Amino acid sequence: MRTHLIRTSAKLALALVPLIALAAMLACGSSPSTSTTSPTSTCINAAAPHHAYVIVQHSSGTTVQKCVGFAGATIDGQSLMDQSGVTFQTQTFSFGKAICSIENEPAQYEKCFATSGPNWSMFIETNGSWTVAQTGYADPQVILHDKDALGWRYIAYEPSPSPPPLPKAS
Fold it and tell me: Residue 6: left (phi > 0), alpha (psi -120 to 50), or beta?
């Protein structure tokens, strides 16, 4: 289990690079759009005083971005994912819930965490800075404030990968 966590943490750290551009967009006050091809902004409960985001980057490079408005000072990761409209499948482990599939990627899976090939990796953006998540999205410690985001990338573990390209800014 410890080896899996170390390997997963290394994999997640390598995935931070593409999300930096998205963090810059959020830090500048721009609301993320629903995809890299559409600059229009949609937000669930847009009239709410606070907004948090779910940003998903698929293996193809396609980015899905969703906004959720909320009235309180914070929103938890489970509520943000549930309200975002992003479709996902989970599995529960000893450490909590893990995302196995987002927006039908992968369409089928035998194990939530493949021993080879890609898996979903989660990041948290706070105050314009992305960090590797140390827990599952439904963990009570995953609390987001106004303009924070949960970021997801579908990436494979590689012993010494080159950094992936940055997503297009919209």
Answer: alpha
Cβ–Cβ < 8 Å for 56, 102: yes
Residue pair 63/102 in contact by the 8 Å Cβ criterion: no
Whole-structure pTM value: 0.71
CA 161 to chain centre: 20
Contact predicate 153/57, CB 8 Å: yes
Domain ranges in the chain are: 2-156
Topology classification of domain 2-156: Ferric Hydroxamate Uptake Protein; Chain A, domain 1 (2.170.130)
Does residue 81 contact residue 73 with C-beta atoms inside 8 Å? no
Residues contacting 145, CB < 8 A, separation 6+: 50, 52, 73, 74, 126
How far is residue 74's CA from residue 144's CA, in Å, rounded to a whole number? 5
The predicted structure's pLDDT at residue 157: 61
pLDDT at 8: 40
CB burial class (10 A; 0-12, 13-18, 19+) of residue 169?
exposed
